[in-house]
Specification:
FAD/NAD-bd_sf, FAD-bd, alpha/beta, seven-stranded mixed β-sheet, FAD/NAD(P)-binding domain, globular, 18 strands, 391 residues, D-Amino Acid Oxidase, Chain A, domain 2, 10 helices, 2 domains, binds flavin-adenine dinucleotide
Length: 391
């Protein structure tokens, strides 16, 4: 009997765990390395679309993602003066996304990983030599500083937007990261914003800055602040809360902005980052392949990053299962099959970014008018469904 193929998976996020679970399922021996000293939890709102749910089902984790979505939730478009109109929320869009926390998907995958797949925390690749038949990787233990060289049949870089694997195997990150000239801050709220029903959401979208509040059925909502900027680097000169207070100065949204910034000040965990897409001509080279944000980061505006990470990891496993004798053939077929999906959503993200945060006054007006129409339609649909006779 031939020995099991060894795969190094870099990154314990959605894409990395999904890839490890899938490859373990077809008889490979994965080792996951994660830079952080422990597994993260919580996170921000994520809409999981059909393609992601189907991949999650194939990976055996869909039923463990149990987050409740709000029933009869309304989304309000709030003006900076506090005025409100009915609008449509993230979950009202076509494709029927399901609202979860990033941590919900990661926790479900972790249940499949722990006990059966080797995980080394506080470990990061320092150098990767990708050869036609194997990859030689220097792995650094970040706690002790010790570096150990190991060989693998395949290295999967699932280490996110600022990927070390990409840098070591494909070249500097600046070559691949395309800035959107925007910043995002996302975190979980402890309490609903003032003057809003528990299961309702709001959107405050001004030219260049916006706030979204995403409700859940079984926990308080999460908040997303996103704004446009000409100089991303300057946004990191001060603590995020100071930067955000300045960027959202003069806007109140019926108390929503004040509430969210106050909660942010005491939030144990939040994301504050610049927004980039990753564009690469190829995602694989010899025995290294990238999957998830490290390969194609779609951005939060696409609403498809987690879906694409699950789908990409599952498809990678399927291709390797189909071509047990040729890893190269598997990677080539996998990439050809997945590229049209990624290309479509990278393009869509450019347009959807205007829904999340319009760049200027004219686009903000267009956006508001579209949202007003959609909101009316949604209200009528909801009223119709509540008036419909029971079957
Ligand atoms: C605010 C926001 C909202 C979003 N909304 C949606 C949505 O509605 N729908 C959707 O589908 N997607 C959404 N996304 C995108 C989605 O969250 C990401 O695409 C997805 O989580 C990326 O997963 P990943 O595993 O590829 O990367 P990551 O989640 O970035 O995980 C990478 C992992 O690698 C580790 N790592 C990094 N460097 C190293 C290293 N050198 N060595 C070892 N480990 C390393 C990191 O610590 C991390 O654990 C959203 C994103 C944001 C920011």
């Amino acid at each position: 009997m031939s020995a099991k193929k060894k795969v190094l998976v870099v990154g314990l996020g959605i894409a990395g765990m999904a890839a490890a679970v899938r490859l373990h399922g077809i008889g490979w021996e994965p080792l996951i390395v994660e830079r952080a000293p422990a597994r993260r939890a919580g996170g921000y709102f994520i809409g999981l679309f059909a393609e992601g749910r189907e991949a999650a089902e194939r990976l055996g984790v869909l039923d463990s993602i149990t987050r409740e979505n709000p029933v009869g939730s309304r989304t309000w478009e709030v003006g900076s003066d506090g005025g409100r109109m009915r609008s449509v929320g993230f979950l009202d869009q076509p494709g029927e996304p399901r609202g979860v926390l990033r941590g919900d998907i990661e926790a479900a995958l972790w249940d499949r990983v722990r006990d059966v797949i080797a995980v080394r925390f506080a470990t990061s690749p320092e150098a990767i030599n990708s050869l036609p038949d194997y990859a030689r990787v220097a792995l650094r233990d970040l706690a002790t500083g010790e570096v150990r060289e190991e060989s693998f049949d395949l290295v999967i870089g699932a280490d996110g937007l600022r990927s070390s694997v990409r840098e070591q195997a494909f070249g500097p990150n600046e070559k691949y990261m395309r800035p959107f000239n925007a910043i995002v801050c996302a975190f979980a709220l402890n309490e609903q914003v003032p003057n809003l029903a528990d299961r309702d959401g709001i959107v405050l979208a001004e030219p260049g800055r916006s706030l979204w509040v995403f409700p859940f059925g079984d926990r308080p909502p999460t908040a997303l602040l996103t704004y446009r900027t000409k100089n991303e680097n300057a946004e990191f000169d001060r603590p995020p809360i100071e930067t955000l207070r300045e960027r959202y100065a003069g806007v109140d949204g019926d108390g929503a902005i004040g509430h969210v910034l106050e909660e942010l000040e005491n939030a144990p965990d939040f994301l504050f980052d610049s927004v980039h897409q990753v564009k690469m001509d190829t995602w694989h080279d010899n025995r290294v392949v990238l999957v998830g944000d490290s390969a194609w980061c779609l951005t939060l505006y696409s609403g498809m990053g987690a879906t694409a990470g699950l789908l990409g990891a599952d498809a990678l496993g399927a291709a390797l299962e189909k071509h047990p004798e040729s890893i190269n053939a598997a990677l080539t077929e996998w990439e050809e099959g997945l590229r049209p999906f990624i290309k479509k959503h990278q393009f869509a993200a450019q347009i959807k970014s205007q829904v999340f945060v319009p760049s200027n006054v004219a686009l903000a007006r267009v956006r508001r008018s579209v949202m007003r129409k959609q909101g009316k339609k949604r209200r009528i649909e909801l009223e119709d469904s509540t008036m419909a006779p029971a079957a």
